């Protein structure tokens, strides 16, 4: 449980870091606000059009008598909007990170610089970084979707489906949320998705301690906007712990002998 507490500590320290560096907090807000406006507009449009979509999808019910026609289409309208809201919640972080790639990479670099030691750079053009981020986000969302289908099915199991399964669901969400956020710092260290997942699996409790409470907070997108800058800063601190850079930074300051010990030494480990 010590690792879980340490992971939560990185989340808190990330929020403290941006609170002490107000300029970077403001910069980190920009992508989240852009994404929030786009998502809010999409959800408003869905809210207005969900009933028409329900009517279009159920032409067979046009001749049904009241109240069955209204009950069917009202239920379908609610389900359509609920599904849209669910998609918004699970994709908000990935889209925000994609929109804010230059902002968050600069923020992550500044955290590395402030904490001391090596400040890795990917050495890749922006379009390449955006492509890698988008590709990896899709891969993560596919994994999350597969877990969601499995957990949905297990949700019908008596007792466990109403207690254990939701807990597992929060853990899965938090784990992959932490992966997406640490990717900002780890991609700069030349780590591909496969290697990042191996790294995170080696410290599961640390990762869950960071990701689970953040995932619970991110259920409210408006809250997510204001937590995102600190989440990126905290994820950078977490990434430094995962690759052993926190220890290495002290050694570097003492004698400069450990600069090459990090897995970030080459930005050319990316591959398609």
Automatic annotation (TrEMBL):
Acidic residues: compositionally biased ranges: 248-260
Keyword terms, alphabetized: Amino-acid biosynthesis, Cell inner membrane, Cell membrane, Membrane, Sulfate transport, Transmembrane, Transmembrane helix, Transport
Ubl conjugation recorded as keyword: no
Compartments in which it is found: Membrane
Transmembrane segments: 24-50, 70-99, 140-161, 167-186, 206-228
Membrane topology of the entry: Multi-pass membrane protein
Region (Disordered): 248-272
Coiled coil: none
Pfam families noted in UniProt: EI24
Name of the protein: EI24 domain-containing protein
Biased composition (Polar residues): 262-272
Highest taxon of source: Bacteria
InterPro entries xref list: CysZ-like (IPR050480), CysZ/EI24 (IPR059112)
Lineage: Bacteria, Bacillati, Actinomycetota, Actinomycetes, Kitasatosporales
